[in-house]
Amino acid sequence: MIKLHLRSMRSSISSALSFAVTLGMVVNTPLHAQTLTSQSTPLDHLKAAPRPVFKKGNTLLPLGQAHCGLSKDTYIELANSWGYGLPIQPDNLAQYAQANPGRYQPVVMVGEVYRFYDNYDGRHSYLPKLPPNTWLRDKNGNIILNGGRPIVSPAAPNEAFQIIGDYYGKYIGQLERTAGQPIKLVMNQGESGLWILADNDPEQYFGRDPQVKADFNNSGLNDWFAYISRNKARQEGVLKEKLFSNLQSRPTYSWYQEQYGTERGRWSGWAWYMFKYENFLDSSRKPIVSDYTAPEMYYNFHNSGWTGIEYNTGVAWDALTQALNNISGAISLGQKFTTPWVSMGWEGYTGQPISSPDTFMGMMKAYYTAGAVGSVGGYFVCSGPLWEALNYNKPIGATTPTLIRQLTIQGHAHALFSHLEEYLRKGDLLTGPNLHPYQSWTKLLPAMEFPAEGQTQQLQGRWGPVTVPTARVLARKISGEDRWLVTAWANVGNDRDVRVKIDNKLGTLTLRARRAGSVYVVKIVNGLVQKTLIDSDAMNPTKFLSP
């Protein structure tokens, strides 16, 4: 089970009681006592975990899931008590939603879109055909292949993506009608269609198609990467709008990997691996595809975990530094919030580590403080006994499965910030005093965090020692008011007190940085600084909060 850690509040009794009156704190949240044995199932583990307490009427997004399946009853339990949307595609859950009107927030996943693009030769006869100029063709009209697969053309007509959007829209529209209520969130797994071809010169492929070369020359752009990004946004936007035309609602839309860039600017070749986010915004800075950036944050996967550097470039490569790069860049383009796709790790890959539960909790608290209004939980064990136990709710033993543990931590962090939503909606993430380290090849951006005094260590990079933080502090401030939300996370080492300067009005704050994160509300009342720890139980952060 998730380890619970209860620490007494370090603020004054009067301050704590004052805040308790404001938020309606309680101390009698029941735990679900249940003995876990060798015959316990994933659902047993979920029901044995202490449930979070959500603020009634909050407007955070429903949490999403991106894994290889859970049992119907597990999905229902996550939707009942943990802040997750009800995925209405599997196990007749659309009918279940219909039988419980108004109780759930329906969500859907758009997946396997790549089948349409692989169908250039008609191998999937059950799919509608796309126009011939969907794919790159050489001067003789032959389809250009890369690694045996066709390449979607930047100049592909809107019709192609309307066909795909209509196909999914009709299916999802029927699910919505069956459920009898609006869909709240559509998640698109992405990674299909037009893409940047990594180390390959884009003109090497795209320029071989006479239609594409002419379209590029007439685009007014001198940058192939901007041209590809603009057309990717057009294509995904057309697909989305056609899908939506089949619905009775207009859900929040999250296309996986749409982002300013967790890696953007870290090294000179960043543009060869990601789209340019500014091309995914219209002239009014309104998103064309995803409502919020949707970056990946998988523990120790394309990052160095909660600390560490990239050896060759000699800069911090941890997940929070990456996340803040995306957030800082998106804020510079007028986009305040994010909905990351996250994972604390998964079994089955050689050397693929799994985060400790408490440090994953700390990262999630930091992510919400930075502007997350939801998240999508990823986990990628898709075969074998472990998958069968999760998918069919078979006995799995007395140790809580990684996926269940992760989903509960996401739910707890989500619930905590349902009580602190005002600081998200009415507040702004403070820039901090330093620039973000990923600035060698792009515009200068603020780091969006505050250095804690003396909380660093040196790691050896290719070109010499590199200093990285061992405690992270992020802060938001309510606009026009002396109220702050401050999170301190011990990303390295044990729980400890740290000192940090956030605002001259506050002087130097002493905060308890915990491995599972500490979230404070700081105010100035009658000229005095009041500091209240909200999540006194770090792993059950809403234990003392009332709905």
Explain how this protein is built.
There is one protein chain. By secondary structure, this protein is of the alpha/beta class. It is 29% helix and 16% strand. The chain contains 14 helices and 21 strands. The strands form seven sheets. Strands 13-16-17-20-21 form a five-stranded antiparallel β-sheet. Strands 1-12-11-8 form a four-stranded parallel β-sheet, covered by helices on one side. β18 and β19 form a beta hairpin. It is globular. The N terminus is likely disordered.
Q: Key features?
A:
5-stranded antiparallel sheet; 29% helix; alpha/beta; disordered N terminus
Task: Chart the SSEs and their pairings.
Elements: H1 13-23, H2 42-48, E1 64-66, H3 72-81, E2 86-87, H4 93-99, E3 106-110, H5 114-118, E4 145-146, E5 149-150, H6 158-179, E6 185-188, H7 202-206, H8 210-217, H9 224-244, E7 252-255, E8 296-298, E9 309-310, E10 315-316, H10 319-332, E11 341-343, H11 357-370, E12 376-378, H12 384-392, H13 402-419, H14 421-425, E13 427-429, E14 456-461, E15 464-469, E16 472-478, E17 483-489, E18 496-501, E19 508-513, E20 518-525, E21 528-533
Parallel strand pairs: 1-12, 2-3, 3-6, 6-7, 8-11, 11-12
Antiparallel strand pairs: 4-5, 9-10, 13-16, 14-15, 16-17, 17-20, 18-19, 20-21
